[in-house]
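Can you give me the bound-state structure? Components:
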Amino acid sequence: MTHRTTVSDRTPGYSLVVIRCILGTIFLAAGGLKATHPSDFYTNLLAYQVGPAVWFFRIVAVVFPWIEIISGALLLAGLWVETIGILVTAQCLVFVLMLGQAVLRGLDLQCGCFGGLTAHWLEQPPVAFVRACLLLAASVWLVILSDRRKGPRIELARSLASEPIATSRGDGEAPRESRE
Amino acid sequence: MRSIFSGLKRAVWAVRPWRLFAVLLVSVVVGLVCDWFRAEQRLVFERPLPVFHTTSPGK
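Here's the bound-state model for the whole set.
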């Protein structure tokens, strides 16, 4: 039986847990800080000067921090990772796009990622853009690794469920493999 | 690069819509409830602006 070595085989399982915990902590902290000061977050959102109407940003300022909090908590707990991983990746993609256009347009604003409570230079668009790119890379890695690690287990479970149990015939012969 | 995209594609198909829906629904409900109870700084359920009646100084 041949087995192709993939990246996930070489990557130890704890790296998945470490990425999950780092992302979970960051999202939990960012969401918590934003949820306590939604009006500051709303002001930061308006500074991006992007299309949608004001009422849309009001709803985003109220709801988005809770999406981050719940995503972070579920990542830390290791629950629903296949779904939350994609949700976190989508959030990071939005961060990258918003901050990217702010950097390109040279907007002078505070990113508002942590509710404006971190050091001033950390909230500048170029720094925040690099941070968002790193978060996006980490979330993509998490999604792909967790999907690859899940894959072989599902295949193994399917093959175990479909194959009849190989038994020894009692004449010293090795058990036969019923299927390849 | 190709394996990254194919991995992402598989991961997107592995998403369970009901779980995603549950997370989003809980976020919306909790966010709106918190906004409702934030008396002075409501964003969605804004209180109506105070109405000022001007009267002439002679009256």
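A couple of observations. The mean pLDDT of chain A is 81. Residues 110 and 116 of chain A are 7 Å apart (CA to CA).
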